[in-house]
Design a protein that fits this description.
This protein is an all-beta fold and 278 residues long. It is built from 1 helix and 22 strands. Strands 1-22-12-20-14-15-16-17 form an 8-stranded antiparallel β-sheet, with no helix packed on it.
Length: 278
């Protein structure tokens, strides 16, 4: 069952969160800001990255009303040619992020890209962006319709499997939020004899590698970033960055117990996914 971008919207996860950190501003910096209200979606875009000669971008989200929450995808680190993606979903706190010179772009050579995409779920937030550039203002706000959320998701119950392909873009890794109900188990084959196992415990995911049915090496505890409800079930989740190699493919995730849910970017990266019976 081949599917393009899902329109299911779920609360998603927080990554690299620092509450209420003020952004330092020098005389050469340019700062722009906008108050964004419930239901509004904005992307922040640079249409001439090389011409603007940006040397750094930082942004801060200030929760300006009680009960405010937001979803966010943003570029992290790297260079103009490559980046990784951070994701925040249903975040209720102020946060600040340093993007460096990274943008999420449709290709490594593209001269335009996005710094971030934000959807305010409830209340109001103030988005404040500081750019260091040798050639004037670089960024602009692009308002999107309500059905163009920056992140989308799919649910994968027991007995089903899914995989994710990044059809374009400049990211070094496939950015994927993996979530599950407590006691769910997901397996991801690595080759004919080895697989990864993600076991969802009450406070973390226990990630292990098995070969010929025997665990090898040391298991890793992946801390949950958030919890959310979808279709009447609660999922706990975290962000993983999967090296895609030349295939730009996540590999297959098989739900062998409980149910899992996956969240990924909508635009620029051309994500496609497939869900089928195991």
């Amino acid at each position: 069952m081949k599917r393009k971008m899902s329109k299911w919207i779920i609360p998603v996860l927080a990554m690299v969160i620092a509450a209420g950190i003020p952004l330092g501003v020098s005389a050469a910096d340019k700062t722009i800001s906008k108050v964004i209200s419930s239901g509004e979606i904005y992307y922040v875009r640079d249409t001439d990255i090389s011409g603007h000669r940006t040397t750094g971008n930082k942004f801060e989200i200030r929760v300006s009303s009680s009960g405010a929450s937001y979803d966010l995808i943003y570029a992290k680190g790297g260079s103009r040619a490559s980046a990784t993606a951070g994701m925040v979903v249903n975040m209720k706190k102020s946060s600040a992020h340093d993007c460096g010179t990274a943008y999420i772009k449709k290709s490594a050579t593209a001269n335009s890209g996005i710094l971030l995409g934000i959807r305010v779920r409830t209340g109001k937030v103030q988005l404040r962006i500081t750019t260091s550039s040798s050639n004037g203002s670089t960024l602009s706000f692009l308002k999107r319709p309500s059905d163009q959320t920056p992140l989308v998701a799919c649910r994968v119950p027991k007995g089903y499997q899914s995989y994710y392909v990044m059809k374009r873009g400049n990211l070094k890794y496939i950015a994927l939020v993996i979530g599950g109900m407590v006691n769910s188990v997901v397996k991801r084959p690595l080759d004919s004899t080895r697989y990864e196992q993600y076991a969802f415990k009450s406070s973390y995911i226990l990630k292990s590698v098995y070969q010929n049915g025997q665990r090898v090496g040391t298991s890793t505890k992946l801390k949950y970033n958030t919890a959310y409800n979808l279709d009447g079930y609660q999922y706990r989740c975290t962000l993983i960055q999967l090296a895609y190699g030349s295939a730009r493919n996540s590999g297959v995730f098989k739900t062998v117990k409980g149910a899992a849910c996956y969240v990924f970017p909508r635009d620029y990266l051309g994500y496609e996914f497939n869900v089928s019976r195991s």
